[in-house]
Amino acid sequence: MNFSLSSFSAIFFDLDGTLLEGSDVHFQNCVFQTGQSFGLETNIPRGMSLRYFLQLSFPEYDEEFREQFITKNYKNMMENPRPVQFFSDVIPFLESLPDIPRAIVTNCVDFEVDLTRRHVDLSQYFKTIISRSFPGIVHGKPHPDIYLRASEYFVTPPEQCIAFEDSETGLLSAKNAGMFTVAVNRYNDIDTRLADMVIRDFSEIEENLSFT
Question: Mind listing the domains of the chain with CATH numbers?
């Protein structure tokens, strides 16, 4: 398949694991430690929101429990350093992108994005970050809400958008929103059948911004 990124009206990127390394591990470790304090085994998959994970894995617990868990995990994340940085292949790719709207579309809530900003200057490459806390979003990934909201924000039909994701949760969200999906399968550890295209990392995209 051969096409140019310029044929899309908006480009969306997941944040953790797609653009940044370090944050996913930090989040997973914090959730695991928080789970231990409740006497639970909580190995959360990459890219999944904590609230959705708790609903899916522990349906016997009520909303009050979920709020307690999330609050405790927030404190845990604040007390543990969140070391993050761009993957080495990301910046050259971002600097070569055509001049069309782009945004980060992440399952992180605002405080997690703020933690990341302490270590990485996201504003250099992105004017817009659509987080799980963005107005109008009811459900995070894997629901399509967050990508539909991104499409709406840029007044662009979903089918004219391309989304880069590194998790099955994110791919499902973008695909159900009707977008062209690219799996960034850095560690060869995700089911990429939902993706329209699969790359190892952004260095696989040619200089002319076409996929081959």
Answer: 3-21+85-211 (3.40.50.1000), 24-79 (1.10.150)
